Amino acid sequence: MAKCDVCDKGKHFGSKVSHSNRKTNRAWKPNIRKVKVVDKGTSKTINICAKCLRSNKVTRAV
Question: Where would one find the signal peptide in this protein (predicted)?
Answer without folding.
Answer: none
